[in-house]
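Worked example 2:
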Amino acid sequence: MLKGKTALITGSNRGIGAAILTKFVEERCSNIFALKRKGIPFISSGEDFNVYNFFFFDLNNEKQVTEAIKRIKEKELKIDILINNAGILHNASFQMTSIDKMKEIFETNFFAQMRLTQYVVKMMQKNKKGSIINISSSSAFEGNEGKIAYAASKAAINCATKVMARELAPFNIRVNAIAPGMVQTDMLNNFTDAMIKKTTDRLCMKRVGQPEEIADVALFLASELSSYMTGQILRVDGGML
């Protein structure tokens, strides 16, 4: 489904990002630039990942971001797909979350994503085509207790998705978002068993999601199967009604 396409994926070390990377390899995405943090191992699924390009840098470091974009341009490859997946979680009540902590969460979950996207959009505009997929969260809709900074940063992503969709449609660039619910990733370590049960009891499907289930939706949005979709935030949360 992605043969001949070039994708840029952030936060591909583990969890959802790693699942998306694996799925894109399986679907024969021709070139993948995976942006990762050093020192965190990527567990492959047996595929030959040596043919792909792994860039190690701090997404919050603008100089390192521009250097990565420069290296991509040097390869004379267009970017067809951007997956803004990198993000961090912080659990604390509103009164116990400092403004500095809020700024830290927003820097990674929102500003760093927007900075990278601005660079990539310039490349997509020249090609008159592209698909941008932002990874949001069901927390942006639910306003869960203890997630003031995280939920607000993801709500900002939702709003930005709609604004970008309107502005970039004339360039044939589609912008959508995926809002996962509780997924079996390292982030789940921040929750107690009681908290997990409380959430899953609310779900129609009564279970935690798997990273591969989010990756399937990312594949749909990245491919031509969703060619008439833009400005949408797809909730993939097991039926959090």
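The first strand starts at residue 6 and ends at 10. The CA atoms of residues 35 and 126 lie 22 Å apart.
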